[in-house]
Amino acid sequence: MAKAVAKWAGGVTAGFAVLLMLLASPFVLDRLAAATGINWASLADVGDAYGSAIALLTAASLLVLAVSVAFQARTARISSETTVRMLHLEMMRFAIEDPTLLQMEGAEWDGTAEGAEEMRRWAYINMQLALYRSFHALRELPTAELRMAMAARFRSRLGRKHWEHNRTWFRASERNGHDRRFNKIVEDEYQKAIQAGEAVAERSRVPRGRLPTGLMMGGVVGVIAMGVGVLLGKSAAARPDSGVR
Q1: In angstroms, how far is CA 164 from the centroid of its own chain?
Q2: In the chain, where does DSSP find H-type helix?
Q3: Residue 62 and residue 60: Cα distance in Å, rounded?
Q4: How far is 101 from 122, CA to CA, in rounded Å?
Q5: Which pLDDT does position 199 carry in this prediction?
Q6: Inter-residue contact 136 to 178 (CB < 8 Å)
């Protein structure tokens, strides 16, 4: 209690001291001018002459600061997206190693090896679509490339089936205008594919049994890491040098 009172009293004392200094400063400057013979009016005119230059420098500094903050925010968003993608990747790793876990998300399995293989593919294309959405939100995946990727996806039967099953979830998870535009592009390409004709059934070249999940997951991790490295490299290269080391 005594320490709190002492801190409060110290703060009040410091406040009064600052107020007294502000009130006394005009009188101190007047005495100083009389003692030294300095013409304060002339100095004020000189200061006014530099006013416009100071205003321009201040505006330029604020602009550089705003650009720097924008790049820092973008880097933070990339880092956040990377964390989410890695968590998603870890979840999908379990699902690819044990496709029966996908039943927790509503996927149906008939108990056959063919069904398990299809569920592994389902997990992969779900992870791929989420990655496309992140890259499009970061403006690293142009709309034209996204449309081409979706057109290729919807030529396959499983690609169409995945979007039919998950389009409601993607729409419900819209966070901003980027997500809404992404979902609209995907839906447009899906409708074009439906109008174009029947989908192509997938053919597996992998022998029945356990897939080489370690190799596949290592490749997926490598692709994601390379993509994140490119994004962070672009952000670092574009950030203005503040001169601070």
Answers
A1: 27
A2: 2-36, 40-49, 51-97, 113-137, 143-153, 157-172, 177-196, 213-238
A3: 5
A4: 12
A5: 78
A6: yes
Q: Are 228 and 107 in contact (CB under 8 A)?
A: no
Residues 117 and 131: their CA atoms lie apart, in Å, by: 21
What letter does residue 156 receive in the DSSP assignment?
B
Q: 20-24, 166-170, 222-226 — which one is most confidently predicted on average? A: 166-170
SS3 200: strand
Q: How far apart are CA 110 and CA 127, in angstroms?
A: 23
Tell me, what amino acid is at 234? K
Burial string for 164-182 (b: 16+ CB within 10 Å, else e) reads eebeeebeeeeeeeebeeb
Contact by Cβ (8 Å): 99, 211: no
Indicate the burial class of 162 (C-beta count within 10 angstroms; 0-12, 13-18, 19 or more): buried
Q: Considering the entire predicted model, what is its pTM?
A: 0.49
Question: How many CB atoms are closer than 10 A to CB 225?
Answer: 12
Place of tokens 């002339």: 42
